[in-house]
Write a structure and sequence with these properties.
Two copies of one chain form a homodimer.
Chain A (H helix, E strand, L loop, with lengths): L3 H13 L8 H12 L5 H11 L9 H21 L4 E2 L2 E2 L1 H4 L2 H19 L4 H29 L6 H26 L4 H28 L2 H4 L5 H4 L5 H9 L2 H12 L6 H15 L1 H22 L8 H10 L5
Antiparallel strand pairs in A: 1-2
Chain lengths: ~325, ~325
């Protein structure tokens, strides 16, 4: 039986063995740069662990797992252009190290490389894997568009926010799990269960990411805290706080958002956080995270395979969510 | 037997029936806008005509033909961002009508939609079609990168230029023909022959496009003449002229390129064209076009199917090249 360590080794070896042409250098060097920069490789691990539920040969899912990881990294690369992000995993983003055109085009090449990897799946699994992959890839684009739309939208509700993160983050997590199940020849109902499992896990992960952006420890979180507050990003915390705050508190929060209440960066972060604490939105968010996480656990529990096969998947769940506990 | 008219109707109906979700509006409206803006639909026609060489049921290639057309339009959309082009087919480009982020993301969605269409090919043809499609898609990215690299490169040779246009334009034309052959269950050697046919046809087309940009009739060419000269674009004409011009002529050409020889837009176009005429590069280009076109014709002639089946393909050849004659 594989352990998570073995799946991790399989993933890192797989990434390391990806080959890209030497030229044109400004097309492929940014691709290698992006893939080398690490990350937790959670999505390919999910694909492999999902496959492992149904077969000892997790490597059956390896080409698709690599395709999913390359696609995920492509979305980061293009999102960083759109968000004008300067840093990613502690290094300059592709568009800031090279330029926008290099970032656009090397991202485009990564999508094709992702499909090329997916295409190496076993022929009898190719069509169903592609169907899931296409849907998750389009979901990510839709989620990113909603995310950008929300910047200019008043009155975004929690429901619409959850739908946005479902598309932007969770369908890829769900799709990664489902594709692993397909590669492992899982029955249809297990395939669907693993999709739902992944979607719930992805929602828990994204909500936790929101909480950590405001309340996390910079050392373990790996990026600067407070970015969401500084940019007035409409996260679960802010949307709920705007709904729940009353009277003077609501007024004060709105003055903080509009900049009428003059603050330094750190001052604004502390002040908004104080409002969040007063209104109790952190607890609300953590309750939602628990709810989605528990749902994912229940779904995994229902998968009709020996419990021993589920070990690596349970470890990945805890790698992805509750990482600061 | 299908005629070209019938293939054209099949193509336009296929494009018209493509469905995209209504929302997010800023993701899918630019996709529809791009696909509605027309163009000659040469690539899907090639795919269908190629399929028709081997089967009466050209519609077997329709999903892949649509995927190729959507992918082609994606490349135009992203190239227009990179080239800062304001107009395409007489209408504002997506990035100028909306903005760069909308153009990046709706282009990304188009790639996924293209693969989604390709994925609807018959299951036993899916893997080989994807293999060809992935290669042509990566070729286009490589060609675009070389094209941008050449803007900053001194001493680009004709050989490197031909390799660039082969990647940027011709492998897609060759791939379109090859995919049609695969969908039509052609024998392997015919599949390869149709690829070579398309590559040669694509080279003839691109070189002719260079000639028309300098010598064409604006009405039939459909865009402003002289753009390549104004931007010092390293086309076949300019590269060969720099090689062949001697003494004072070469000096004058270099002064025109560097801007030391002050001219209006029209003045520069006329002056560079005069150098081209003096050196005889137009004839050289037309000889190359003939050479590639003749090679394509020979290859089509060698395809071992009844001559009557080749009618639509011959018409497409003349639609694509020699369109001003």
């Amino acid at each position: 039986m594989y352990s998570l360590d073995e799946l991790s080794r399989m993933t890192e070896t797989g990434i390391g063995e990806l080959e890209f042409p030497a030229r044109p250098e400004r097309l492929y060097r940014p691709v290698r740069y992006t893939l080398e920069s690490g990350g937790k490789r959670v999505r390919p691990l999910l694909t492999l662990a999902s496959c492992l539920l149904f077969t000892d040969r997790a490597e059956k899912a390896l080409p698709a797992a690599m395709g999913i990881e390359v696609f995920h990294n492509f979305t980061l690369l293009h999102d960083d252009i759109m968000d004008r992000a300067e840093l990613r995993r502690g290094r300059p983003t592709v568009h800031s190290r090279w330029n926008d055109n290099v970032a656009i085009l090397s991202g485009d090449a990564m999508v094709v490389c992702a499909y090329d990897l997916i295409s190496r799946s076993e022929p009898d699994k190719l069509a169903p894997i592609l169907r899931v992959f296409n849907a998750l890839a389009l979901g990510v684009c839709e989620g990113q568009q909603y995310d950008m739309d929300f910047e200019e939208t008043e009155g975004v509700t929690v429901e619409r926010y959850i739908e946005m993160i479902r598309l932007k983050t969770s369908v890829m997590v769900g799709g990664a799990a489902r594709i692993g199940a397909i590669a492992g020849s899982a029955p249809q109902r297990e395939e669907e269960r693993l999709y739902d499992f992944g979607v719930n896990l992805g929602l828990a992960f994204q909500l936790q990411d929101d909480v950590l952006d405001t309340y996390g420890d910079e050392k373990t979180f790996g990026k600067q805290i407070g970015g969401d507050i500084v940019t007035n990003k409409k996260t679960f915390l802010l949307i709920r706080a705007l709904e729940l705050a009353k009277g003077g508190t609501k007024n004060y929060l709105q003055r903080l958002l509009s900049g009428k209440e003059q603050k330094t960066r750190e001052g604004k972060i502390a002040a908004v956080r104080a409002v969040y604490d007063a209104v109790g939105v952190r607890e609300l968010a953590e309750r939602e995270i628990e709810r989605y996480f528990d749902r994912a656990e229940t779904l995994l529990g229902e998968v009709e395979v020996p419990e021993a096969r589920k070990g690596p998947m349970r470890e990945i769940m805890h790698l992805l969510v509750k990482r600061n506990k």
